[in-house]
Amino acid sequence: MDVFLKTVSALNDETRILILRFLDEYGDSCVCDLQTSLDMIQSRLSRHLKILKEAGFVRVERRGTWAYYAIRSPLDRFRSEALEEIRHLDITLPPLQKTSQTGACKL
Amino acid sequence: MDVFLKTVSALNDETRILILRFLDEYGDSCVCDLQTSLDMIQSRLSRHLKILKEAGFVRVERRGTWAYYAIRSPLDRFRSEALEEIRHLDITLPPLQKTSQTGACKL
DNA sequence: ACAATATATCAAGATATATTGATTTAATGA
DNA sequence: TCATTAAATCAATATATCTTGATATATTGT
Q1: Set of chain A residues whose Cβ sits within 8 Å of the Cβ of B17
Q2: B76/B3 Cα distance (integer angstroms)
């Protein structure tokens, strides 16, 4: 698929917009933190993170069994404009819950 | 639906990207010109034009039985960035066929 | 090597979106 | 008013995408 269409397609989902907004606000997060904070089951989150990654919005860094996702930097022009739009959306962002640091995730 | 999501959703389709690219290149066009030039059946075209209109990308002007569509101007920041991206895509744009001017459309 | 845990992938069903052909609406001209 | 034509909408089907629960993979510590 064309790159632009893939980029747009990745933006075309409320869940992914929320994830992007979350990562933009709180910075690097491991999947289990996202799970507890956003109250999503693991497979769903994993799927959307993959789509965001393949669309060039996020990067992953593995540390042990954990996978830390973050907004890619630098983003190209169109993607940063999209992120800027997302930044100004009226989204009620749930508070960050750092399960990964306080102990094991045990989800 | 949220405005941003609606905007993105409108971009998330090859047909609509082609239509936007076409209007950007050739300017105002009536539906029958789009039909012949892009070789699309009328109902399909009409549907996509409606989506583009409701997403704020195009405007319509009626002249008699004809409906002329054009890129809205000015576009807001995000939409113009999107259009700019589309402008640089590797799309083989079919030539403009002005059915509406040479006579009746008779499609 | 084995157990435990985090993450990724798979399969099935549910939901949304696109395509087509048929029908409806609206404007023009005889 | 009636016939004609452009464009919009509708109904049915096809296709794609999302969600969930189950399973697979990979890493750590014992």
Answers
A1: 4-5
A2: 12
pTM of the entire predicted model: 0.94
Spatial CB neighbours of B106, under 8 Å, sequence gap ≥ 6 = B99
CATH number, domain of A76, equals: 1.10.10.10
The residue in chain A having the minimum alpha-carbon distance to the alpha carbon of residue B5 is A12
Q: How far is the CA of B69 from the C1' of C25 (A)?
A: 19
Q: Which residues of B touch A77 (CB under 8 A)?
A: 81
Range of the domain at B18: 2-100
Query: Residues contacting strand D at CB < 7 A?
Result: A 9, 12-13, 15-16, 40-44, 47-48, 51, 62, 64-65; B 30-32, 35, 42-43, 46-47, 49-50, 60, 65-67, 100, 104-107
pLDDT at A101: 53
Instruction: Tell which of B20, B21, B85 to mutate to test the A interface (max A CBs under 10 Å).
Output: B85
| Residue A62 domain flag | yes
How many separate domains does chain B show? 1
A chain contacts of residue B8, beta-carbon cutoff 8 Å: 8, 11-12, 82
> What average pLDDT does this structure show over A9-15?
98
Give the C-alpha separation, A4 to B12, whole Å.
9
| CA trace torsion A99, A45, A17, A103 (10° rounding) | 10
Residue A102: count other Cβ atoms within 10 Å of its Cβ: 8
Q: Write the pLDDT tens digit of every residue in B50-81.
A: 999 999 999 999 999 999 999 999 999 999 99
